[in-house]
Amino acid sequence: IRERKLAKFIRWGPASIQVALSRQSPYITHTHKVNGLMLANHTSICQLFDRCVKQYDKLRSRNAFLENYRQEAMFSDSLDEFDHAREVVVSLSDEYKAAESEDYIKWGLMGDQEAHIPSSHASDRRMP
């Protein structure tokens, strides 16, 4: 797969795809001979995260749908929880983008340790 360039693999990790075969369930009627399920973990998910952040920013700039949350005790003072969640998603997206580079294994170790900790962890009051 790597040689034929059917999928783009990171250079610092193994180029392997795991396949598990199993019998069909006797409790479910199948209309086809072959059924499948794919679970994937890859760096392209950062595009989805970026799209979610962009949509959140649009809603937040217009204060759309926020009045219902402000009526709740948790959000009566501020909507910082939403902004914190946005930071977490941005830092997760940044880490997935960094995972595409060859020096990702050193990503958390290079230079100042604090500079490479996602901003969500640095500002998270729940983290020790």
From TrEMBL:
GTP-binding in keyword set: yes
Keywords: Cytoplasm, Cytoskeleton, GTP-binding, Microtubule, Nucleotide-binding
Gene Ontology molecular function terms on file: GTP binding
SUPFAM superfamilies: Tubulin C-terminal domain-like
GO cellular component, one term: gamma-tubulin complex
Keyword Ribosomal protein in annotation: no
Family matches, as Pfam families: Tubulin_C (PF03953)
InterPro entries, A to Z: Gamma_tubulin, Tub_FtsZ_C, Tubulin, Tubulin/FtsZ-like_C, Tubulin/FtsZ_2-layer-sand-dom, Tubulin_C
Domain Tubulin/FtsZ 2-layer sandwich: 1-52
UniProt function note: Tubulin is the major constituent of microtubules. The gamma chain is found at microtubule organizing centers (MTOC) such as the spindle poles or the centrosome, suggesting that it is involved in the minus-end nucleation of microtubule assembly.
Protein family membership: Belongs to the tubulin family.
Protein name: Tubulin/FtsZ 2-layer sandwich domain-containing protein
Organism: Polarella glacialis (Dinoflagellate)
